[in-house]
Amino acid sequence: MISKKNFAKVSATLGAVALGVSATATAANADTIYTVQSGDTLSGISYKFAKDNSMVNDLAKKNNIQDINKIYVGQKLIIKSDGEIQEYNAQNAANANAANNNTQATQQQAAQAQSQASQSYTSNASGSEAAAKAWIAARESGGNYGATNGQYIGKYQLSASYLNGDYSAANQERVADQYVASRYGSWQNAQAHWQANGWY
């Protein structure tokens, strides 16, 4: 027979163990396998996960990267939820893959929502502004949303970093309008700059 005191101790112990297991599972769900993409830098990867450059040296050290300015497409890193970086190996990959599968559906839903939002942009350029915009698009890509030239993407040959991975026609239109408005003030001014310099 268990006394009330012993019952309370056993209950408290089991509760603490259950909470500990729960906390461990939560932390494991946030592990990420990161595969280096074309154009990535250690500082860019650090910014993606820590929103600053604080992880650059740890990334280099824990992954035996001799020159922080040289990483290779396809290189894999595991980044823990607390920002800890681990060298890629089979055991770490299995743990991170299991955790990533739990959140994949949520990420796909978010991507679909973003894609739907980006498909509904209408430019406010009209008249001579629209003509200048079309003139630049014709010179940059022949009006082709799928055109690429190194890091420059799409109809307006915008830097891939401006497009944030969304190369849809609507996002290209939106970002081009924002870029021209902030840099030149108008499409006519951007056209004048292009005519004088061969780029905008």
Description:
The chain has 200 residues and is mostly helical. Helix content is 57%, strand content 8%. Strands 1-2-3 form a three-stranded antiparallel beta sheet, with helices on both faces. A three-stranded antiparallel beta sheet has the order 4-5-6. The longest helix has 29 residues, at 90-118.
User: How many strands appear in the DSSP assignment?
Assistant: 6
Q: How is the quaternary structure best described? A: single chain
Please tell me what the overall shape is: elongated
- Biggest sheet descriptor: 3 strands, antiparallel
Radius of gyration over all CA atoms, rounded = 25 Å
Order of helices and strands: HEHHEEHHEEEHHH
Q: How much of the sequence is in beta strands?
A: 5-15%
Individual helix count: 8
Mean pLDDT: 77
Q: What distance lies between the first and last C-alpha atoms, to the nearest angstrom?
A: 84 Å
Low-confidence stretches: 12-29
Reading side by side through the largest sheet, how are the strands ordered? Answer: 1-2-3
Report helical residue fraction: 55-70%
Q: What class do helices, strands and sheet pairing give? A: mainly alpha
Give the topology.
Elements: H1 4-28, E1 32-35, H2 42-50, H3 56-62, E2 76-79, E3 85-87, H4 90-118, H5 128-141, E4 148-149, E5 152-153, E6 158-159, H6 160-163, H7 169-183, H8 187-197
Antiparallel strand pairs: 1-2, 2-3, 4-5, 5-6
